[in-house]
Write a structure and sequence with these properties.
Rossmann fold, 415 residues, globular, alpha/beta, 15 helices
Length: 415
């Protein structure tokens, strides 16, 4: 019996010519999406859609067409017919189709229904930072561009994807460090694209009782991270950036406050126990599970008063310290699954972590690609896998670039 595969819309837009080895069924849902994108104000997206439609017309004999309408909500309470990926999945479940997608969430949903999943290699990967920086001069063209943004927030001039940030800087007003070197430019404005329009960033300071510190953004890029962490609609949150930019400090402060407010039950601290590159291994650690894992939770300990603070949180059932392998098969509800040093994880680790996010839970990860400690994590990158979710309304990412730890820590950049 011939096995047919449904391709999601992104595959049709970006890699339709790579589907020749499969028997492809085109669904009404993806065809309508392509038709809608043909008239998109995003010029690149419109071009891709027209190109895909033209390819389909010229190669009709290569495709099977399924023009039925499927309701993703029929799959269960966690699915929504307004979300085309759920409708595609429903078609696959009903008809025994496989699915071709590079979207990690859709892959995992499909596997949950025993739908065969295929992935196409993406050789055009570019590092996604979650932000577009625009540097404006005092030219008429640049000023007109900024004015258009204020006049019509629905214009997506910079081809942003959902939850991507847009920052404007004044290139005519540089800022300087203590040595008189340019280290940035005057801030003009910032926005987040919600899928329809540009919206203002929303954030407020946090003050978890456990630490007693009032935490607020100390530079304009950190405002992005506050906005991301305080957005309840985004359930997979990734922060990248070099050492000292405030990743753990800001994220841990937010996590503790959410627990104290009763919005989350606990933190599941999950970190791959990878030794530092070029440092001899410690071997098998003695002691109980806590003793073996506590060294990998020291970034958390630094912000909660040391190991004693970790023990207090564990006794109050507000913290679990877990090895990645112990998470397999778990359905974690109403918790923050927190993974630091995410660059030292593989694509399969990323899928494992995403798959643990149960009702009311979120996945928070952070990392620094410059501190990747083994080739396996470069060749099968968890960060690269997770960025395939860009454009999904449940995913958000920010990349910070200014060291705030100390002037001394910033000297590491010179080594």
């Amino acid at each position: 019996m011939t096995k047919f595969f449904a391709a999601d819309t992104n595959i049709l837009l970006d890699q339709i010519e790579g589907l020749d080895e499969f028997n492809i069924v085109l669904l009404s849902h993806t065809l309508r999406e392509l038709d809608k994108h043909k008239s998109s104000p995003n010029g690149e997206l419109a071009y891709k859609a027209r190109k895909a439609v033209r390819y389909i017309k010229q190669n009709r004999d290569k495709f099977k067409f399924d023009l039925n309408d499927y309701r993703g909500s029929d799959l269960g309470s966690n699915f929504n017919s307004q979300y085309q990926d759920d409708n595609i999945l429903k078609a696959c479940v009903d008809n025994g189709y496989g699915i071709i997608t590079n979207d990690v969430l859709l892959q995992m949903k499909s596997e949950g229904f025993n739908v065969e999943v295929k992935e196409l290699d993406d050789n055009t990967y570019e590092e996604y930072k979650g932000i577009v920086d625009v540097y404006l001069t005092d030219s008429v063209e640049d000023q007109q561009q900024l004015a258009e943004i204020y006049e019509n927030r629905f214009i997506n001039r910079f081809n942003l994807v959902i939850n991507q940030y847009l920052y404007f800087w004044d290139k005519t007003s540089p800022t300087y460090n203590d040595e008189g070197e340019i280290n940035g430019y005057k801030f003009l404005d910032s926005f987040r694209f919600d899928g329809e329009k540009l919206v203002d960033l929303k954030h407020k300071p946090v003050k978890p009782k456990f630490t007693g510190d009032k935490v607020k953004p100390i530079n304009k890029k950190q405002e992005m991270l506050f906005d991301l962490l305080q957005n309840e609609d985004i359930t997979i949150k990734m922060c990248l950036g070099k050492f000292g930019v405030g990743k753990d400090y800001v994220m841990i402060s937010h996590a503790l406050q959410l627990i104290e407010e009763g919005k989350m039950d606990k933190i599941i601290w999950a970190r791959n126990n990878v030794e530092l590159a070029d440092v001899p291994t410690l071997g098998i650690l003695p002691g109980e599970k806590f003793d073996k894992l506590v060294e990998f939770a020291m970034p958390l300990a630094d912000h909660v008063g040391g190991v004693e603070g970790l023990i207090m949180l564990i006794k109050e059932e507000k913290l679990e310290i877990q090895h990645l392998g112990s998470l397999r098969g778990r359905d974690i509800k109403n918790s923050i699954i927190y993974c630091t040093e995410f660059q030292n994880n593989t694509k399969n680790h990323a899928k494992l972590l995403v798959g643990r996010v149960g009702k009311g839970s979120e996945l928070w990860v952070n990392g620094d690609l410059q501190q990747t400690d083994a080739d396996v994590f470069r060749q099968s990158s968890a960060v690269r896998a997770l960025t395939k979710l860009k454009g999904n309304f449940r995913f958000g990412q920010v990349t910070l670039d200014k060291t705030e730890r100390s002037d001394t820590a910033e000297l590491a950049e010179l080594l």
